[in-house]
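About this split. The held-out portion is used to measure sequence recovery: a designer receives only the structure tokens and must propose an amino acid at every position. Recovery is the fraction of positions where the proposal matches the reference. Here is one held-out target exactly as it appears in the evaluation file.
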């Protein structure tokens, strides 16, 4: 475990299990841009910490069980966030993706994580300190591109306590939880190295 800082924190997640979901096509919602970054270079002053969060080869890379906050404030109760991501180094059994409503009341970090792995599965966690609870277990979906160096676009539409999750513009599932109500957006890779581009946060 690595100690959390103001702009990054570590976490551990449980072992995956498999399942299956049927993809459903959906349209991309529009809105007012809250924050946007192609993540090709550090023009917005992201955390750079060797071995954890760094820019390389035109992408923002995260590895070794870290979350790195977007350099933007809390987007509020209703927003949509999307990012392109691919695993570039490692095996296929640990997730990487988007962290939502990151906050630290009483110096205990809390957040939601929507991630995929290179097996073509998605998962949604609620994390409170060292406790990680699967709100939706690892589930295979045909919309998720499998393998290393293969791009996937993740998107979550946040409406209060409802989290509607998409991969490659295909609905994979909806999660409901009212535990955390505010906080920042971030990117995470649970163990191996993942590369991120084109982060977009919009508000309705």
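Reference sequence for scoring:
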């Amino acid at each position: 475990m690595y100690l959390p800082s103001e702009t990054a924190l570590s976490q551990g997640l449980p072992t995956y299990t498999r399942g299956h979901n049927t993809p459903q096509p959906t349209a991309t919602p529009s809105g007012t841009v809250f924050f946007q970054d192609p993540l090709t270079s550090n023009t917005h002053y992201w955390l750079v910490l060797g071995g954890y969060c760094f820019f390389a080869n035109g992408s923002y890379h995260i590895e070794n069980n870290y979350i790195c906050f977007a350099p933007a404030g809390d987007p509020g109760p209703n927003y949509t966030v999307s990012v392109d991501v691919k695993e570039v180094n490692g095996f296929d059994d640990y997730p990487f993706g988007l962290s939502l409503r990151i906050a630290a009341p009483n110096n205990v970090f809390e957040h939601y994580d929507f991630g995929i792995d290179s097996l073509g599965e998605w998962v949604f966690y609620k994390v409170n300190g060292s406790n990680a609870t699967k709100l939706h277990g690892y589930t295979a979906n045909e919309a998720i591109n499998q393998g290393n160096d293969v791009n996937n676009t993740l998107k979550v539409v946040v409406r209060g306590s409802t989290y509607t999750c998409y991969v490659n513009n295909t609905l994979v599932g909806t999660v409901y939880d009212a535990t955390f109500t505010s906080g920042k957006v971030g990117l995470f890779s649970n163990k191996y190295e993942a590369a991120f581009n084109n982060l977009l946060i919009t508000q309705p």
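Annotator remark: The two ends are 37 Å apart (CA to CA).
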